[in-house]
Design a protein that fits this description.
The protein is mainly alpha-helical and 65 residues long. It has helices at residues 2-26, 31-34, 36-58.
Length: 65
């Protein structure tokens, strides 16, 4: 179960960072202009949203029912 949860966290952060890259480039800026703190918190927020969905589909039961 621990391995599934670690995979869930890794996938969430990777997808969250890729989405952050896509958002920043879509609005016409770079990560340097966007800032490290904003990049981190945007990635974290997107990763949390993705983790909720992945928890359901991967069956890791990280969140209570």
């Amino acid at each position: 179960m621990l391995a599934k949860r670690l995979i869930l966290v890794a996938i969430s952060f990777v997808v969250g960072f890729v989405l952050t890259l896509g958002i920043t480039f879509a609005i016409g800026t770079t990560l340097e202009e966007y800032g490290g703190i904003y990049t981190f918190f945007t990635t974290l927020a997107l990763a949390c949203a993705i983790a909720i969905w992945l928890d359901k589909f991967m069956g890791t039961e990280l969140l209570p029912k």
